[in-house]
Amino acid sequence: MQFSLIESLLVTALPVLFLIVLFGGGALFRRREIDMDGTPPIDKRIYLPAKYSIVVLWAATAARSWGAGISPVRVPEPSRWIALALWVFGFGLLFAGRIGLGASFRIGSPLEKTGLRTSGLFRFSRNPMYLGIYSTVLASFLYTLNPIVLALAIFVVAVHHRIVVAEERYLSGAFGDEYADYCCRVRRYI
């Protein structure tokens, strides 16, 4: 598989830029005395490893894009191109979802009252950022065809689905009928 400099830069830049937006936004929140870190909606011993595992998967993908030999088999070109499309799509959802949530964004359930976002991407998916995560971790596997990456991706998706279900219970309690109506109009993922 031939890697191009543009491909490697793209694969590396998207997660780096997203993490800068994510944590840079956290710094801006702290200046406004808003705690971006909410309460983990599931057991913290599962929640935190799943969150950090995403970064490990992104790093594995970036390493592979620079030619690191982490693929135990030759990755077919169609798999690589599908992976790249899912990668860009997933990060597009992550960026748009993060920006769309604005000051309501939290890692976990908020400690204070926030607003329910139902516009923008949230008109089509109640969880576009989780869909973005799922897309990028699937891309990681397709790009590397590494069984360890596959196992970690399955772990990330399974735990994040549990997080989504727990967050839905929180949102139902926090927003009542408004959230129930929203759930009737918009599906969980797609």
Return Rg in Å.
17 Å
Helical proportion, percent range: 55-70%
What is the CATH C level class, in words? Mainly Alpha
Q: How many structural domains does the protein architecture include?
A: 1
- Net shape: globular
How many β-strands, per DSSP?
0
Please sum up the structure shown.
This protein has helices at residues 5-31, 44-65, 77-101, 128-144, 147-185. It is mainly alpha-helical and 190 residues long.
Can you describe this structure?
The chain is an all-alpha fold and 190 residues long. The protein has one domain: Up-down Bundle (Four Helix Bundle (Hemerythrin (Met), subunit A)). It contains 5 helices and no strands. The chain has helices at residues 5-31, 44-65, 77-101, 128-144, 147-185. The longest helix has 39 residues, at 147-185.
From the structure above, extract its key features:
0% strand, globular, 68% helix, Four Helix Bundle (Hemerythrin (Met), subunit A), mainly alpha, 190 residues
Set out the fold topology.
Layout: H1 5-31, H2 44-65, H3 77-101, H4 128-144, H5 147-185
